[in-house]
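Structure tokens please, single chain.
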Amino acid sequence: MKRFHSSFDARTRGISIAVVVIVAVVIALTGVAAQAGRSLFFATVSVGLSAFFAFLFALSPNGVEVGEDVVYICRRWGSVPRHLAALTNVRRIAIHELQSSIRLVSVGGVFGWYGTFQSPTLGEFKMFATRLDRLVLMDFHGERIVVSVDEPDALLALLQVQI
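Here you go.
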């Protein structure tokens, strides 16, 4: 099994750090208010925000693994497997192909870009990316997946042998 890592670019790192700091301050303030006996509401907000951001981090992408028969889009919690037999096309894409994309059910920026998106250029696709400058599009029967990895050309070369 060959692993391709996916690191944060400066944009993703900056967005993630800013949001985490803001949420941490809100959690701390609501926790202080809850401990002061102000309200059960503040305790609930604090716990809820903590759980929500832990969930976002757990689902964020962190690489791709290619095995004999399966490609795994790796997340910090669980992987998304796709059979290589269903792979019909693979190519690099540039960020301009993602322009005017809308999020259908997805996260955009905090710990990466992941979920389902719609684009005039690509149509509906799933994206698992931590950066927007090293993108690879994988077409499977009836499904498009965009991933980012630190070594996109090496991933591309390995997957093109499978087609």
